[in-house]
Amino acid sequence: MPRITKEEAIAAYDGNAAALARALGITPSAVYQWPEGRIDDLWALKLRFVLMPAHFQALQRPPQDDPDADRIVPVEGA
Q: What predicted TM-score, i.e. pTM, was given to this entire model?
């Protein structure tokens, strides 16, 4: 499962939490209420695979930090 922190998600939208909220189709208040640290998997999946795949692919963590690293299969051309 992709792991994205609240800080990384907001930074992807140039530090603008309201822009992140608009992209996700939620209110800015909802983003501000997220706890610090890892965001919900639903939002992480949408960010990583739908809205900004190139951005978040560049933020890949080392395999030892990802419990699912052994299940990830590289796709050519992605």
A: 0.70
Total number of residues shown for the chain: 78
Q: Are 13 and 20 in contact (CB under 8 A)?
A: yes
Residue with tokens 């990384």: 8
Q: Residue 68 belongs to what H/E stretch?
A: none
Tracing tokens 């050519």 back to the chain, one arrives at 76
Cα gap 28→75, rounded to integer Å: 34
- Tell me the pLDDT of the chain (78 aa) as tens digits: 568 999 999 999 999 999 999 999 999 999 999 999 999 999 998 998 888 888 877 666 555 566 666 676 666 665
Q: 20 Cβ partners below 8 Å, 6+ apart? A: 9, 10, 12, 13, 31
The two most distant CA atoms of the chain are separated, in Å, by 39
